[in-house]
Amino acid sequence: MNFDYLNHPYPSQRMTAFAKNGMVATSQPLAAQAGLDIMKKGGNAIDAAIATAACLTVVEPTSNGIGGDAFALVWVKGELHGLNASGPAPKSISIEAVKEKGHEKMPTFGLTPVTVPGVPAAWAELSRKFGKLPLAEVLQPAIEYAEKGYPLSPILAKYWNGGYKRYKEIFKGDEYKGWFETFAPEGKAPGVGEMWKSEGHASTLRSIAETNAESFYRGELADKIDEFSKTHGGFISKEDLADYKPEWVQPIKVNYRGYDVWEIPPNGQGIVALMALNMMKGYELTEKESVDTYHKQIETMKLAFVDGKKYVTDPEKMKVTSEQLLSEEFAAQRRSLIGEEALTPEPGTPPSGGTVYLATADGEGNMVSFIQSNYMGFGSGIVVPGTGIALQNRGADFSLDPEHDNALEPGKKTFHTIIPGFLTKDNEAVGPFGVMGGYMQPQGHAQVIMNTIDFNLNPQAALDAARWQWMEGKTVQVEPTFPTHIAQALARKGHKIEVALDTGGFGRGQIIWRDPKTGVLSGGTESRTDGSIAAY
C-alpha cells in the first residue's frame, strides 16, 4: 500500500507514527507506555500486549476489567494464532432459573448476567505460549499504577462520571456497594487530572502474576468470587471457574481485493465484518465520498448484521457453519437484495452444508491484535469487595426464548461483541487493527479496511474518517463531520439519518501496519478518545 502520508483530509490532523523496533497503540497513554517499557526490557510484542492489557484494567476501568473476557490474534513466525478467552454461562443457570427471579429477559446488571471471566486466563496463556518474560514482571507496571495511583485523562473522566451518575440512580442493593467503594471512594467519580488508585486491584494483580492466574480460577480469588456470589444469590461458582480454560482457535478470513482480512471465529461477531466485506467485494468502488459507496456499505452491513445476530452463538451450538456464512454463494444471494432504496433487513438462509483494544508489534516481526472488555462500560456493576474485580455482564446478550439460536443454556458461550482484526497479503503480515465499541465493532472494522484498501488512506486518516453506524431498521447514525450533502442524499434513498453529536458511540480504533520490505512500522491511534502510540 502506497499511502500519501501528508494528505490527511480529516479533522484530527494527528499524523501517522513511525518506528522500527517496537510499537504499542491503545486508548490510554500510560498503558501504551507500559507496554513499550516491557518491550525495552527484553519482552516481545506478546509481553507488551499483556502488560498493556493489564494496565488498561487499571487506567481505563470504564471499559474493561480483570473480570472480563478477551480475544487475541497473534502473528508469530509467519503464522496467525487465535485465542478465544470468552467464558461460558455458569452451570447452575437456566432460562427457568432466571425467570424464577422475575425476569422476562436477561437482566443487564447484577450477578445474573455474569459469565466466567476469561481475561486472567488469556494473559497467562499468551505468556505461557509466546511470552519471553515472566508474567510477574509483565504485570508489574499495572500493579504499580493500581497501588500508587494515576491522574485521570479527559475522555476517561467523562465516561467515569457518566457511569457514576447512572449507577447512583439504579444500583440500590448491597451487592453494588463494592462498585461505589472501588470507583467512587470519596462519594463521587474522580475528575480530570485527579488521582485514583485501588489497592485491592493491586493485590489481585499481584496474586494473578505470582500464580499464573491459578489463584483466580482455583485459589483464593476464586473462593472470594464464589463466596460473594453465594451470599447475593448469583449463579457463578468456584466450580465454574475451576473448569475454565481459554481456547486456541483457527482464525477465519475473507480475501478482499487481494488482502486476507482475519477475525476470530464465532462466538465472536467478527464474522459480521467478513460477511459485509464478502458482499462489498462484488462492487467496484470509484470514490469514498459518494452516495453510492455509502449506500452499498450500509446495506451490506445491515444484511451481515441480521445474519450474525440470528446465527452466531457458541460454535458448538450453531446451526450453520462459518464456511456457509462466508461462502461466495451466500454473499451473492444477499448482495442481490441490494437496490437503490434502503431496505429493512431480514435474516437470510445460508446454503446447507464498553471494551479496550490494543495493537503491538516488535522488531522481530511479532504482532498482536488484542481486545478485552467488561461490556457496557463497567460491566455488571458487581465488584467483589476488596479485590478490584469488576465482573462482566456478557450473559445479558443471551435470549430467554428457548427457540433462539443464542438461547441461554448452562455452560454455553453467548454471542460476543468484542473482536480483534488482522490483515495479511500474500501470506505476510500487514498488521493488527481493531475498533472497539459494542455493535459498532464489525461496522468499524469494515469501514477501516475499506478506507485502507479501497481508498488508500494511511493508518491515521483511516481511523479519523467520519464514521456511520447502522442502528436498526433503516436508522443510521452519522458523526457531525459526516458530509451533509451525502447524508441528505442517503435520506432520499430511504435511510433514516440521525446526526449524533457525541462521537463516543462510533468506536475507538488502533492500527499498526508493517512494511514487509523494510520492517518499518506505521501506526494510527484513536482521536475520539485519549488514544496514544508509544514507539521506539
Strand content: 15-25%
Biggest β-sheet: count, sense, barrel?
7 strands, antiparallel
Q: What is the molecular shape?
A: globular
Count of extended strands = 21
Tell me the quaternary state. single chain
The average pLDDT is 94
The residue fraction in helices comes out at 25-40%
Distance between the termini: 23 Å
Low-pLDDT stretches: none
Strand order of the largest sheet: 1-20-19-15-14-9-8
Number of helices: 19
Radius of gyration: 22 Å
Structural class: alpha+beta
Protein name: Glutathione hydrolase proenzyme
Organism: Litchfieldia luteola
Keywords: Acyltransferase, Glutathione biosynthesis, Hydrolase, Transferase, Zymogen
EC number: 2.3.2.2, 3.4.19.13
Task: List its traits.
alpha+beta, 19% strand
Polypeptide structure, described:
It contains 19 helices and 21 strands. With 536 residues, the chain is α+β, with helices and mostly antiparallel strands. Strands 1-20-19-15-14-9-8 form a 7-stranded antiparallel beta sheet. The chain has a 7-stranded antiparallel beta sheet with strand order 7-4-3-11-10-2-21. Strands 16-17-18 form a 3-stranded mixed beta sheet. The chain has a domain at 24-187 and 200-247 and 356-397. A hairpin with a 2-residue loop joins strand 8 (252-256) and strand 9 (259-263).
